[in-house]
Amino acid sequence: MAAQPLPVKRAIDDAPGVVVIASAVGSHVESATRALDGGAHVVSISDDTTEVEALLELGPRATELGLSVVVGAGFAPGMTDLLASLAARKLDVVDEIAMAKTGTGGPACARQHHRALKRPGQVLIDGEWVTRSGGSGRDLAWFPGAIGARDTYRADLPDPVLLHRAFPSATRISARVSATRRDRLTFRLPMLRPPHADGGPGAIRIEVRGRAGGAVTTAVYGVMDHPSVASGTTAAVMALAALDSELPVGAFGLGELDDPRPFLRRLRERGVKAASFEGSGQL
User: Which residues contact 109 (CB under 8 A, 6 or more apart)?
Assistant: First the structure.
């Protein structure tokens, strides 16, 4: 009779060094609090405004413990914040930021997209926060690759909150999400059919305008990918950075990191690639 391998003995106090929270909206704050109490860094991909604001309030506790709480570490918010930070490096002063996204990841993401369209969202206009109705403010956004042009609308999105923390000099910040005619007709109703397991290809676009050397300058970046894949990859990159002690302590969004380029390089190495819009025209 062959000898049986001995079971591996694990220490009872063996705890994770980082916890990635990718569950449905509403559970992230409780999970993050438990993780901090257990001595773990936190990476959350929540895209709910109320939840994002509550996670940011964990900053003092995380700082006291010497831990990081990475807030909005998905596709949008998340990679959008890194791209905004990259664009801002070309400017002396950031005046305006406009974010747009299209596509969803899994079922929970699709349900959150549906909820966000029916709720009013916050927009920064001339340095003042203004509430705008969900589904208003139609704007045609051009996304990279095969996604192309999509109609986008205001919604209850956390991106302006995170972007304003990272770029307090900006006087105008907006965020929009794409919606079809059917979406706009039904967004005030319960979802009429169960969402797909994966929403397929999507995209993000970030436009940053400001001043450089006395001239008005605009930088535009975008990414086309499956939101589920891009969100998971972004969260994984940030989790590894937390384990390697590359992140500041406290609670923060990705736009607040000193240099976005190392993280964007790691995302590119893992297949999530950003594109820049470059062009010129005259009337």
Answer: 47, 199, 227, 228, 231
Q: How far apart are CA 152 and CA 154, in angstroms?
A: 7
* Nearest one of 98, 96, 103, 41 to 73, comparing CA atoms: 41
Residues 114/191, Cβ–Cβ less than 8 Å: yes
Alpha-carbon distance of 11 to 65, in angstroms, equals 23
Question: Considering its fold, how many domains does the chain have in total?
Answer: 2
**Model pLDDT for residues 121-149, shown as the tens digit of each residue:** 999 999 999 999 988 999 999 999 899 99
Both 36 and 154 in one domain: the answer is no
Contact 105, 198 (CB under 8 A): yes
What's the confidence (pLDDT) of residue 135?
84
What is the Cα–Cα distance from 78 to 86, expressed in whole angstroms?
Answer: 13
Residue listed under structure tokens 């998340």: 78
pTM: 0.89
Contact indicator for 223, 76 with CB cutoff of 8 Å: no
Residue 172 burial class via C-beta count within 10 angstroms: exposed 0-12, middle 13-18, buried 19 and up? middle
Give residue 115's pLDDT.
83
Same domain? For 51 and 150 the reply is no
Q: Are residues 219 and 85 in the same domain?
A: yes
